[in-house]
Specification:
This protein is α/β, with parallel strands linked by helices. It has a single domain, classed as TIM Barrel (Alpha-Beta Barrel), CATH 3.20.20. Helices cover about 35% and strands about 15% of the residues. It is built from twelve helices and 19 strands. It has helices spanning about 5-15, 40-55, 70-85, 140-155, 175-180, 185-190, 195-225, 270-275, 300-315, 350-360, 375-390, 395-400; strands spanning about 30, 60, 90, 110, 115, 160-165, 230, 240, 255-260, 260-265, 285, 325-335, 370, 400, 415-420, 425-430, 440, 445-450, 455-460. It has a four-stranded parallel sheet. It has a four-stranded parallel sheet with strand order 2-3-6-7, with helices on one face. Strand 9 and strand 10 form a beta hairpin. Helix 1 (about 5-15) crosses helix 11 (about 375-390). The model has no long low-confidence stretch (mean pLDDT about 95). Bound molecules: zinc ion. Zinc ion (ZN) binds near residues 181, 184, 186 and 187.
């Protein structure tokens, strides 16, 4: 599909907003990244207005190498049109962050015999090297970012939102990461207690955060202090991660603790802060392996439980002034590493829509829809409809405080809510057989939450 065809699918499957967006961020969509498809400025502005009427924005992808001059011209043209219309100027900074580990011998680990080697356990084409041999790559990656950032500044254009999807690059402690580092003389010397996983992990993650801070976040924020900058999968947390990326495998030799059959992994808590990012990007996907982690009777609760855990983790640990913009995806997310299993029952669209609501009612601010292009016709509808309907509660979503992050360990009613003064905006979603009334505790008081399927309610708190 061409960029224009993709945009047309998004326009066809969505309706103009019923409630004003106000101070809420635009809804971000993976398909809406690309060079402006319209050659004529008036037509481009018309298209941007049509998207804005639906609350959505086009993001300009930055490029590297031979493609970057052309990408810059297209990006500046889009930014100019967005600035003229008073719209948010947004950037897709995926390309410029690759690749620190470019596969050259200088970036490799090194063993006692002087042999150079890489960790290839994440991807056959990505040679992950030594974190103590990558500093020479910093100026190159930073330049790839600054080239664009300086051009925006010179042109008097702002950057309001910039994200990246920087994943299989830089040090990663999972898969064979630990055992590979233990064979490297340089890693052993620099990490004296390398046999202690948490200490090893802290060193790896600190360098990984430094790479993102010095080559991406700082170059942007020093030029555009108000910009929202973030990266896929980087968000404040409770020191645990409740999902595996498509390139990560469960390695029983690494520390973990089980929740049913889910192997929860210890995470390095300061990661988000050390990157200097200004918005959080948790990942709420229906990862294929999630289904078999739990024994709940209701198939939907397998997905919902896991995604609510992740959403609550980010919600509970992210400061109120840092927006949470989770990547979301409804269609089963199965990697080529995973064989198809007939017993895995996909998440219903109803449960997915409920999950999106509960994320908003637990401190999330917005969504970033990720999906392959051939899924956009299906994927755009639930996320856009939930997000657009949530605009009627902007006062709660912008200023309200979450009343609970509880994730019920058995199927039953799930309640989320935002408190604003004497009122709470609540939503209750029932899984499995439901017994009796449900109460939540707000300000030391037990508040009854009646069933109201598929709806939010505003409840007045009882006067003291
Ligand atoms: Zn090394």
């Amino acid at each position: 599909m061409t960029r224009r065809q993709l945009i047309d699918v998004v326009l066809r499957e969505t309706r103009p907003l019923k409630y004003p967006r106000g101070r809420r961020l635009p809804l971000y969509v993976w398909a809406l990244r690309g060079a402006p498809p319209e050659a004529d400025d008036a037509a481009l502005e018309g298209l941007l207005r049509e998207l804005d009427a639906r609350g959505m924005a086009l993001l300009a992808p930055w490029a590297t190498g031979k493609r970057r001059d052309k990408a810059l011209a297209a990006a500046l043209r889009l930014a100019r049109a967005q600035k003229k219309l008073g719209l948010s100027v947004g950037v897709d900074a995926i390309r410029p962050l690759y690749a620190f580990f470019n596969g050259t011998p200088e970036t490799a680990h090194i063993d006692a015999q002087g042999n150079r080697f890489f960790d290839e356990s994440f991807h056959s084409k990505r040679r992950i090297g030594c974190p103590f041999a990558v500093q020479g790559r910093f100026p190159i990656i930073r330049e790839q970012v600054e080239f664009f950032a300086d051009a925006y500044r010179k042109a008097g254009l702002p950057i309001d939102f910039i994200f990246s999807d920087w994943e299989i690059d830089g040090p990663i402690e999972w898969n064979a990461g630990w055992e590979t580092a233990k064979r490297c003389v340089r890693c052993r010397k620099q990490i004296p207690d390398i046999d202690d996983f948490r200490s090893f992990q802290a060193t790896f993650r600190r360098i990984r955060a430094q790479m993102q801070r010095e080559c991406f976040a700082r170059p942007i924020l020093d030029r555009f202090p108000g910009a929202l900058a973030g990266n896929y999968g980087v968000y404040p947390n409770d020191g645990w991660r409740y999902w595996y990326d498509w390139f990560e495998d469960f390695n029983p030799a690494l520390p973990h603790r089980f929740d049913q059959k889910e192997p929860e992994r210890p995470w390095w808590r300061p990661e988000f802060r050390e990157t200097n990012y200004t918005f959080a990007m948790p990942v709420l996907y229906t990862w294929y392996r999630t289904f078999d982690w739990y024994t709940f009777k209701d198939p939907d609760y397998h997905w919902f439980y896991n995604m609510l855990k992740i959403a609550s983790n980010a919600g509970a640990h992210t400061p109120a002034d840092v927006p949470i913009i989770p990547f979301v995806h409804h269609t089963l997310t199965r990697s080529a590493r995973e064989p198809e299993q007939p017993h895995v029952k996909p998440m219903s669209e109803r449960a997915y829509r409920e999950l999106l609501w509960h994320a908003l009612l637990r401190g999330h601010d917005d969504f970033f829809l990720w999906c392959p292009n051939d899924q956009v016709a299906h994927e755009i509808k639930p996320v856009h409809e939930v997000w657009a309907a949530s605009l009627q509660y902007n006062d709660f979503i912008l200023e309200g405080v979450p009343v609970t992050f509880a994730v019920p360990r058995t199927e039953g009613p799930v309640v989320s809510g935002l408190r604003l003064g004497n009122r709470i905006l609540v939503r209750r979603t029932d899984f499995g057989p439901v017994a009796g009334p449900v109460f939540i505790k707000v300000g030391g008081k037990k508040v009854p939450i009646p069933p109201h399927p598929g709806q939010c309610s505003v409840i007045e708190l009882p006067q003291p």
